Amino acid sequence: MATLTADEVRDRVSRGGEPLDESAYSDEWIDGVIAEHDARFARYRGDIPDSAEVVESLRPVGGTERLVLRWPKATVIDSVTVDGTALADDYWELRDGMLCGIDYTWPRRLLVVVTYTHGWDSPDDLKRSCAMFVEKTAAVSRMGGAREVRAAGPDFSSPLLPNATKGAPTGWSEVDGIWNSYPDLRLPGIA
C-alpha cells in the first residue's frame, strides 16, 4: 500500500502547485515517484509511511526472551508460530519493536514465524510530504534534471542537494522538515 494514489497526488498538487498534466506525467510515473518517496522515507526513518502486513521468519541462535523484528514500528501482531505450532497470546507481547516472551524463552534454532502490521498508517503530514515530493520531482523533470538553487551569485550557484547526514534526505526543506519530525527507528548496524 502506498502513502497516496496518483489521483490523490494530482488533487493535492492542483490545489497549490502547477498541475500534473496526465499527458506529461502518467499514473505509472507518479506511482513510481510515490514508491521512491516511501522507500526513501523508510531508509531514513526506519519504517514505512503507510501501514502494511508482513510475515517475518526468525531463527534464534540462542535461548532469548526477545526477538528484534525487522520493522520497529510494529503495531499489531496477528500470529506467532514456533516450528509450525501457533503460540497463544499469553506467551508473548509486543514491546518497542521486539517480540518479548512472557515467562517464555524462544527456543534455539527453531523457526519462529511472526505475522504483524507495521508503519505509521499514512498520517496527513506524510501524505502532504508525498505530494510535495512528487510535485518537486516533476519540477526537476520540467527543468531538465536541474535542482532548485538555494543561493546564486555571478560566480557560483548552490543547488539544494540531498544530504541525509545533515538532516536533508531529499534536499527539499519542506519535505525534510516533515520527515525530521518523526523519530529515527533505524537499528544501529542493520541496513
Describe the protein's architecture and organization.
The structure is a single chain. Helices cover 30% and strands 24% of the residues. It has 191 residues and is α+β, with helices and mostly antiparallel strands. It folds into two domains: 6-47 and 122-180, no CATH class; 51-119, no CATH class. A four-stranded antiparallel beta sheet has the order 1-7-3-4, with no helix packed on it. It starts with 5 loop residues before the first helix and ends in an 11-residue tail after the last helix.
Overview features:
9 strands; elongated; three-stranded antiparallel sheet; 191 residues; alpha+beta
Quick structural overview:
By secondary structure, the chain is of the alpha+beta class. It contains four helices and nine strands.
Layout of helices and strands:
Layout: H1 6-16, H2 27-45, E1 51-58, E2 66-68, E3 74-82, E4 85-86, E5 92-95, E6 98-101, E7 112-119, H3 124-142, E8 149-152, E9 157-159, H4 173-180
Antiparallel strand pairs: 1-7, 2-6, 3-4, 3-7, 5-6, 8-9
Beta-strand content bin:
15-25%
Inertia-based shape: elongated
How many strands in all? 9
Report the span from N to C terminus: 22 Å
Instruction: Give me the strand/helix succession.
Output: HHEEEEEEEHEEH
Task: Give me the Rg, rounded.
Answer: 21 Å
Strands of the widest sheet, in order across it, are 1-7-3-4
Helix proportion range: 25-40%
Oligomer: single chain
Mean pLDDT comes to 86
Structural class, by secondary structure, is alpha+beta
**SS element count, helices:** 4
